[in-house]
Design a protein that fits this description.
Length: 420
Amino acid sequence: MNLRKTILATGVAFSALATASFAHAEPTAEVLHWWTSGGEAKAVAALKEDFEAHGGKWVDSPVAGGGGDAAMTVLRSRVLSGDAPAAVQLKGPAIQDWAEQGALADLNDVAEAEGWDKVIPPAIQSVMKYEGDYVAVPVNIHRVDWIWANPELLAKVGATEAPKTWDEFNALADKLKAAGITPVAHGGQPWQYATVFETVVLGLGGPEFYQQALVDLDEDALKSDTMKAVFDQMRKIRGYVDADFPGRDWNLATAMVMNGDAAMQIMGDWAKGEFLAAGKVPGKDFICSATPSEHGYLFNVDSFAMFNVSGDDKVEGQKLLAELIVGEKFQETFNLLKGSIPARLGVALDKFDDCAKKSEADLLAAQDAGGFLPSMAHGMALRGHLSGAIVDVVTAHFNSDMSSDEAVERLVEAVELAKD
């Protein structure tokens, strides 16, 4: 009997000790991501340092390769085995996919305490929320619709700035081509075709048309004369690139502009990082200008989704991590390293370059004009099978003699098939 009492007392004492230890367990977060090189790796290291400075235990789970494809394979395996990481780098509709499966945690208490609804742009809130609940947090805002230009080459044909309309773009490109200068640096990869394509859709059709065509997938918009005009413009751009474009990586196209081998490139603001890394100065060594549109702005947002985990230490780790990610300190540090701008409005941009300051000013103007829109090319507007259908048609058109009429017919068919 005494032995039983001793065992029972020991068990109770151990349970109490375990409960006390658990209650004071340090916030812990396993973070699955694919930022493994360059400025991205430095940016993640900055978040880890901040997390640990606030008493957290960071468990790093980097998965390199495939632009995140390899990481998603690991994630699916982990979730199926009941061992999901606390935080996972996800973006766009993929967040909604996982939320629909009931895999994501609710962050509303943190969001309310930190006032996220007041500092995160509404269009980005809609990506971070599922059925009104925050399930993810934004890290940054990349702008997709940029022209990067070499001012010395533009000056050779009498131009002092990037074109403000697509007609001006064509006129400038014709002058450059006549002068023996490659007008447009471009890489022949599907996502790069799609990047150029969506900027033309935005510019020729306007924000409302972009929403109808590349977000809502409205059939009337997809088969419209405006869309035919978009493919006409894509055909013109095809005539402005050099013969060696197939398969070229985007950063090599950026180097062409930097080195004076081409005058312009249409690419997101990650291209700016290439110029800055080479010691180039915005406004002096290169020009950053929005692609022609009426207050349009195509965004590409990196984010972390929080998966359902068990254990107070892991739950508290998620909350702390989410708070820090949206906090002003990390938003500044990360985006200075990444070349993007803060996803949190109101962060001081004193340390940012002129292109970043222009990006935020244009963002605010675009919000007011209804032109702040998700990028189709970069996985923000549509689920993969739907954007893939569009990209396939755009790629086939650019690399053939396909007419604009036929391209529009194929576009409508491809989207309808993808919907089924």
